[in-house]
Amino acid sequence: MFIIAPIQDKKEQKNICGKCGAKFDPDCLAYSAVEDSGKLLGVLQFRIFDGYGVIYDLANACGTDDLEVLIIMGKTALKFMDTCGAKNAVIKTKNRDLYKILGFKKDGEGIYKVNLKRYFAPCENKHH
Question: Model-level pTM greater than 0.85?
């Protein structure tokens, strides 16, 4: 079992990013995933702008390979963005396998986007 929680302290965020091979961005919000035993599993950094969210980093801790953790962290961030009023989200992580798994699709400009209103609409989403 693991817990996904917001990282409240920027020093802690920087430390966790380092343990996950992610470039720390102090302007980003962040989540960590940690096992009940205290073992770090991953980090996610994102921002919410006017009407949209951006996922910048979504990475396992170095030495960990847990796709399920990344998927759940990604969906947690998308739900938070939706709750904050973002209508769309884009993803810019290094792990391109997650783009499709999380439901992002390339638009005409080559940007991977997802419509959050449809993403969380009951019975409308087929990629969960």
Answer: yes
- How far is it, in rounded angstroms, from Cα 25 to Cα 54? 13
Residue 3 pairs with which residues in a beta bridge?
Answer: 34
- Long-range contacts for 103-110 (Cβ within 8 Å, ≥24 apart)? 103/127, 103/128
pLDDT at 126 (0 to 100): 54
The CA distance from 111 to 107, in Å, is: 5
> For the chain, which domains are there?
2-119 (3.40.630.30)
Q: What tens digit of pLDDT does each residue of 49-76 get?
A: 988 999 999 999 999 999 999 999 999 9
Rounded to whole angstroms, the Cα distance separating 4 from 79 reads: 13
